[in-house]
Amino acid sequence: MLTISAIPAFNDNYIWCLADSSKKKALIVDPGQARPVQDYLVKHGLTLDTILVTHHHPDHVGGIKALVEGSADCRVIGPADSPFKDSTSFVHPGDEVVWEDVTFQVISVPGHTLDHIAFFTDTEISDRPVLFCGDTLFVCGCGRLFEGTAAQMMESLKSLRELPDATAIYCGHEYTLANLRFARSWLPDDIKLEAFEHQCKEQREAGKPTVPAILADEKQRNPFLRWDDPVVVAVAKQYCSEQGLPFDSDSAIFAAIRHGKDNF
Asked: Residue by residue, what is the 3-state secondary structure of 71-99?
């Protein structure tokens, strides 16, 4: 039986553990810290044999060296042409990664960083296809543009938006409530956002993560997936007028939404 569990790290990171309980094996995604992973593996009697890396930021790769030293024959699979050079297998967009009976497709998603990739499988885990997307797509948000452009990020999100609606989105941070505060400021009359914000507050107060989200839901509520939604376009048009920003393309609309979040 395959399960996916969140291993909290730092203040708001999620390290993801995909485990095969019958074989007691584990795959770890973006281990920014080693100790939380080591403790989790020991507690659940799991052996680490694969690490997936979405991008090079320290809060996603900082624990890899210690984990590899403590796990014989552990593969580290990460993006080619990346500042992170400690992968044992470098992958490119379109490549496949096989772990147990699961095959992941490697998707290029530059924007947050230029080397950023995501891992998608249509093998259903907990009855859903799975996307490990690092810091590209968040619940009701998207990653800050540290290296890429708004146009690149929009194209990356467009490729993720085209995945199956049932896909479970496993992102790298618990940013949901902050993202919702911005989304609600832009779309104060959006009843779905209001209800979701209330739900997420209850989850966090109970100590529960708001991740994963479901892609079909995100397509309806996440402003960063709605650059072509007339309601969002109207707000972006007004914002561009006030800020003196261009308003001549989908990428300009997306850039306005990102600009709004960056200055919120």
From this structure: CCCCEEEEECCCCCCCCCEEECCCCEEEE
